[in-house]
Specification:
Order of helices and strands: EEEHEHHEHEHHEHEHEHHEHHHHHH
Helix content: 40-55%
CATH superfamily of the largest domain: NADP-dependent oxidoreductase domain
Shape: globular
CATH class of the largest domain: Alpha Beta
Strand content: 5-15%
Largest sheet: 8 strands, parallel, barrel
CATH architecture of the largest domain: Alpha-Beta Barrel
Bound molecules: NADP nicotinamide-adenine-dinucleotide phosphate
Distance between the termini: 42 Å
Structural class: alpha/beta
CATH topology of the largest domain: TIM Barrel
Radius of gyration: 21 Å
Strand order of the largest sheet: 3-4-5-6-7-8-9-10
Number of domains: 2
């Protein structure tokens, strides 16, 4: 397997990293019920096959991922990998909390240091907390003590906030949601380029949109070239971006581990060319249209006499298909007036240039957001 490099730091990483968030579980309703024997075999198979980057976090698998990873990395496996975990910034309420949580994590992971330590899931509000509680100085302190090696952050917010955070500290790396569908979403391609110009490489999460790009809907599948598998297109797209160091995959089966190891073994020969990008753009167009409602946020429908933010609610509804239900619920939670407040007066429908049957869609939103 040919390794890849971070621009700023002298570490070589496997093109695929193990995302420790989607191990097989015995009870689908209980994320903490990791099938430990199977998951340990998968993790060790990946490491034996050359994977040297593992990404876990405080809350994955209902707070069990770090404990499990610590156990699975016994017998000499810890020394073979770069271990990444994340500070649960939403729990930090004082400067002392930073070291407190890191020490608990080191205990769970059964190690004396974390190689890649990220501030978890930064958005504007959490970035404000980072500043308020002097988190970055505390992390530098932890680094001086040898508890962490490289400092980064994972991110879910707008491009503008991304730039603000990238410019706000001397980061070694960062982690974003990115794939051939999310090129203009959150940090997006623009963010990748911006950080790349500053010499900071990316770790990629959700390379397959949580599995959606490995299992395209028939309408979208029609548009994708059959020269490679869907999974290969998703991965090869990312491995063709020089700003990306490692692509995390949340593998759930041994078959996926084996498949991803095979693809990672040949990334260099599979760099995309212009026609491939054009083809994937076409796939994205259909995917985006498949977005459940073709709202363009023109706001012609507003204001709603019953107080609904129609484009905002539709954006959340589309995210159930294009991002994830949990993400969509977070967006939806911003709106005090929910879809069930629609009285089907249909005033908005007369205004909509896309001819969306808004009152009908609102009924679907009610169902989708209740699931
Ligand atoms: N910091 C953050 O805020 C954050 C957020 C999200 C993720 N992450 C990290 O990033 C990692 C990667 O994100 P992700 O788990 O969402 O990755 P992903 O690759 O987008 O989704 C993982 C899913 O893709 C499918 N898959 C993977 N390899 C496959 C293969 N060879 N063949 C067929 N299907 C395959 C599987 O879905 P099915 O088994 O369902 O088909 C798997 O569960 C996470 O595990 C986690 O470590 C971090």
């Amino acid at each position: 397997m040919q390794y890849r490099k971070f621009q700023k730091i002298d570490v070589e990483v496997s093109p695929i990293g193990f995302g420790c968030m989607r191990f097989p579980v015995s009870d689908p309703k209980d994320e903490s019920s990791i099938c430990k024997e199977e998951a340990k075999k998968m993790l060790r198979k990946a490491i034996d096959g050359g994977v040297n980057y593992l990404d876990t976090a405080w809350m994955y698998h209902n707070f069990s991922s770090e404990d499990f990873v610590g156990e699975a990395l016994q017998d000499g496996y810890r020394e073979k990998v770069n271990l990444a975990t994340k500070l649960p910034i939403w729990l930090v309420e004082s400067e002392d909390d930073v070291m407190k949580y890191l020490d608990i994590q080191l205990g769970k992971l059964k190690t004396d240091h974390v190689d890649f330590y990220l501030v978890h899931g930064l958005d504007q509000e959490r970035w404000d907390s980072v500043k308020k509680y002097n988190v970055l100085a505390k992390l530098e302190e932890a680094r001086a003590m040898g508890k962490v090696k490289y400092l980064g952050f994972s991110f879910h917010d707008s491009y503008e906030t991304f730039v603000d955070i990238i410019d706000g500290f001397d980061w070694d790396f960062y982690q974003i949601q990115f794939n051939y569908i999310n090129t203009d979403y959150q940090a997006g391609m623009k963010g990748l380029k911006y950080a790349g110009e500053k010499g900071i490489s990316a770790v990629i999460m959700e390379p397959m949109l949580g599995g959606k790009l490995a299992n395209l809907t028939p309408q979208v599948e029609e548009r994708i070239s059959k020269e490679r598998s869907q999974v290969e297109w998703a991965l090869d797209f990312l491995w063709s971006q020089p700003e990306i160091a490692v692509v995390l995959s949340g593998m759930s089966t041994m078959e996926q581990v084996e498949g991803n190891l095979e693809y990672a073994g040949r990334w260099e020969e599979r760099q995309l060319v212009e026609e491939d990008y054009e083809m994937l753009k076409g796939v994205k167009e259909v995917f985006d249209k498949m977005a459940l409602v073709p709202c363009t946020k023109c706001n012609y429908c507003m204001p709603c006499p019953f107080g609904l933010n129609i484009p905002g609610i539709f954006e959340a509804y589309n995210q159930t298909a294009s991002v994830s239900t949990s993400f969509a619920l977070k967006t939806y939670a911003q709106y005090d007036v929910k879809a069930d407040a629609c009285r089907a007066c249909r005033r908005c429908e007369k205004e909509c240039p896309q001819h969306i049957e808004i009152s009908e869609v609102m009924k679907k939103v009610v169902t989708a957001m209740a699931e």
